[in-house]
Design a protein that fits this description.
Layout (H helix, E strand, L loop, with lengths): L4 E4 L7 E4 L2 E5 L11 E3 L4 E4 L4 E4 L6 E5 L7 E3 L4 E5 L2 E5 L6 E6 L6 E7 L2 E6 L4 E5 L6 E6 L4 E7 L2 E8 L2 E7 L6 E6 L10 E3 L4 E5 L6 E5 L8
Parallel strand pairs: 1-15, 2-19
Antiparallel strand pairs: 3-22, 4-5, 5-6, 6-7, 8-9, 9-10, 10-11, 12-13, 13-14, 14-15, 16-17, 17-18, 18-19, 20-21, 21-22
Length: about 230
């Protein structure tokens, strides 16, 4: 069995902080249901809204698909299949039919939040436990754990950068962390009350798609240009 390792997510008062630039808002798509997990399949953005998974075109904002799948937390896409946290399990879903192809246990047993796919693994946020787990997508075995000092919501990887959302009280941000040390490197602050981040996913380029929790909306937020992309 793989050894579980743990790295503390360190506070860094010198971490670069800037205001989150909201480029566009979408939805709400399934009011009064909140927006939970968010993912991107290269063409459509998917948002989990309780009893359904809704896909929409980020260019037009128009809904393109609706699947009757339980989704009360994070959503991910591995290039072929969707993965969806549904209470105490993670479902592997055929995006064409909505059929559940396989199921693994969720590491938080119902306390899970964000979900993303990277490096052949699923990465699962644990909200109140303030952790991020790397898990085996076939078995659910925890391979690695990173500890946070904030409630963890959505999780995403892009260009080797690990980002996650936080939402604690009236404060919410998106932060980039060092995946080896856990140090907080950069934060995008949501300065306006009520603009919390639930789900989080990168488009692989310049945008983050952020679930807006009880608003039922999804917001596109500009990804800052790092030194490596300058």
């Amino acid at each position: 069995m793989p050894t579980t390792t743990s790295a503390p997510l360190k506070s860094n008062s010198r971490a670069k902080a800037s205001a989150a630039e909201i480029v566009r808002e979408y939805g709400p798509f399934a009011q009064p249901e909140p927006a939970h997990g968010v993912t991107y399949d290269g063409r459509n953005v998917w948002v989990a809204s309780g009893a359904t998974l809704v896909a929409f075109d980020p260019d037009s904002g128009e809904r393109t698909r609706t699947l009757n799948c339980t989704g009360d937390a994070g959503t991910a896409f591995d290039g072929t299949h969707l993965y969806q946290i549904a209470e105490q399990r993670i479902d592997k879903i055929d995006p064409a039919t909505g059929k559940i192809l396989a199921t693994i246990p969720a590491p938080g047993q119902g306390a899970d939040s964000g979900l993303t796919w990277a490096e052949g693994s699923l990465w699962v946020g644990q909200y109140r436990n303030r952790t991020i787990h790397q898990i085996d997508p076939a078995t659910g075995t925890v391979l690695r754990t990173i500890e946070s000092n904030r409630f963890v919501t959505g999780v995403t990887w892009v260009d080797g950068e690990l980002w996650h959302g936080t939402w604690e009280g009236e404060e919410s941000d998106i932060r980039r962390i060092d995946p080896a040390s856990g140090e907080v490197l950069e934060r995008l602050e949501h300065a306006l009350a009520g603009l919390g981040v639930s789900g989080l996913e990168s488009d692989g380029a310049d945008l983050f798609y952020c679930g807006g929790g009880p608003t039922g909306k999804v917001r596109a937020v500009r990804r800052p240009r790092s030194a490596s992309r300058a």
